[in-house]
């Protein structure tokens, strides 16, 4: 059994927000290796393809902190989160909480995941104050309607959003 603590931070990341990056950088401090699981999640009708989202996450991590980037792996997944976590030998699932409204859903998911594999713990990280209100779906809506998204995402992600919405126009 490995003594390396591997954490999984799953999400759709469509698009990756400053709030996601805050959780990634903080989670990377509490595990030895962090695997960002980019969910294919076709049911949500993502704006970006899985491959584009994986690339965005990798670019943002590298731009934010090369030292952290060396300990972070970004992978797509399209199976049960617990199966994905087991496939990367994770002992921890990291989940970000923005508000009380997130807690009920996340609490239920943690309970279900605990039943599926009691050896993998779920750890909740509260969003910092300045990121509690950011949600990818709001960022997409603001961008689609021509609003300014630079407060919520990096300049690179903002440019990708602008490019994507220009193509749809």
Question: Can you offer a commentary on this structure?
Answer:
The longest helix is centred in the middle third of the chain and has 17 residues, at 100-116. α5 (100-116) links the parallel β4 and β5 (121-126). The radius of gyration is 16 Å and the shape is globular. The model has no long low-confidence stretch (mean pLDDT 92). The protein is built from 7 helices and 5 strands; from the N terminus they run βαβααβαβαβαα. With 169 residues, the protein is of the alpha/beta class. It has one domain (6-132): HUPs (Rossmann fold, 3-Layer(aba) Sandwich), CATH 3.40.50.
Give a nutshell description of this structure.
With 169 residues, this protein is of the alpha/beta class. It has seven helices and five strands.
What fraction strand?
Answer: 15-25%
Helix content: 40-55%
Average predicted local confidence, pLDDT: 92
Number of helices: 7
Topology:
Elements: E1 6-11, H1 18-28, E2 33-39, H2 50-64, H3 66-69, E3 72-77, H4 81-87, E4 92-97, H5 100-116, E5 121-126, H6 136-144, H7 155-168
Parallel strand pairs: 1-2, 1-4, 2-3, 4-5
List keywords for this structure.
18% strand, Rossmann fold, 46% helix, 5-stranded parallel beta sheet, 169 residues, alpha/beta, globular
